[in-house]
Amino acid sequence: MATSRESASDYENSNDPSDYTACDSEFLAIKSECPVIKSEFSKSSLSIGASDDVDGCGAAWLSVWGQVVDREVDDCPAQFHFNARPGPPDVPGADAAPVEYFLTLLGDAFVDNLVQATNQYGDDRVRQLAGSVRGLPSNSRFHKWRHTTVAEMRAFLALTINMGLIRKSTIPSYWDDKYYSQSTPMFSRTFTKDRFLLLLSTFHWREDGMESPGERSTAKWTKRVSFALLGRALLNSFILYQQRTCHQPKLDRRTFQVHIVEGLIGTFREPRVRAGGPGVCPIEARLTDPVDHLKPEKLPNGKRRDCVVCTDRNSGKRVRTSYLCATCNVALCIGQCWKDYHTRVVYKT
């Protein structure tokens, strides 16, 4: 906090940025631009005597006075009177959990934007790689690409926040369990390393009206904007919590963020593919070689398997079929499921 000064020259002699308030900084900026103020507060102040006075005005002042421009009324900015209630429109109650303060400021629309833009960018990258001369590399994580959801995006944001609380040298090291004393098992319990890195590479935010993302530089720029907004929401939600919470004792800032991490993850766990289950055909093969997928084969001995398109174990929906694509080694219902799997990048809706 800046201390009061006896003279304006003290402002000029101080080199400590902490000595300036916001008003001081604004004053100094104006002072450097305006010759009158600069002259008035210089160390060699003007000495105006009676002989220098012209009609009650100092001639010395006239030597540094700038021209006064008469502006038209229409050029002046309009004056607006703010009469709305400041702050977020829906403030959580005094007994609200930390994650409620955070989500109030972050906004559902922002998370929805992240989900939609990330899905679109991921689809574009898969098409771009599959359509290139070299094709989609056999070891590419994009073979496992699927659309993200709001619940998964919240868990992804939670892990990025937690990385700021638990510092490690590299991102993959959060999944390294070679040394028990250095392991962080909550990361692997929430996401596989490949899934997290895949989301990180496609993580995207899109402003309204922005064209479809197609360049890597755009992705890097929007990542910075998104994480900057995330940081603002963390800080402002903590300030709001400190002002409104009825819980005593109040949480410190780090513990407050830990509660947000756990609240964002909730019960989310990335669905895992069971070992020994049906294979998954690479995206490049199932989309670019349609001739090999034209003839369905019937499972022997009346066996049935879950359709990979319309079965959703997370929601409890299970549809079994006796047909499969031998090329992809996946079970599919004849008709729309068969078509969607072989023509769409993301075949699950």
Total helical elements:
13
Q: Order of helices and strands, N to C?
A: HHHEEHHHHHHHHHEEEEEH
- What topology, given as strand order, has the largest sheet? 3-6-7
In the residues, how many domains can be counted? Answer: 3
Tell me the major beta sheet: 3 strands, antiparallel
**Shape verdict:** elongated
First-residue to last-residue Cα separation = 56 Å
- Uncertain spans: 1-58, 209-214, 274-279
Which band does the percent of strand residues land in?
Answer: under 5%
Average pLDDT figure: 75
Rg, Cα atoms, Å: 31 Å
Helical content class: 40-55%
Count of individual beta strands: 7
Content-based structural category: mainly alpha
Can you describe this structure?
The protein has 349 residues and is mostly helical. The protein has helices at residues 9-13, 22-33, 35-40, 59-64, 98-106, 108-130, 150-165, 185-190, 193-202, 216-244, 253-265, 283-288, 336-343; strands at residues 53-54, 57-58, 297-298, 305-306, 320-321, 323-325, 330-331. It folds into 3 domains: 9-67, no CATH class; 98-265, no CATH class; 283-343, no CATH class. The protein is built from 13 helices and 7 strands. Strands 3-6-7 form a 3-stranded antiparallel β-sheet, with no helix packed on it. A two-stranded antiparallel ribbon has the order 1-2. Helix 5 packs across helix 10 (216-244), helix 5 (98-106) packs across helix 11 (253-265) and helix 7 runs antiparallel to helix 11. The relative contact order is 0.10.
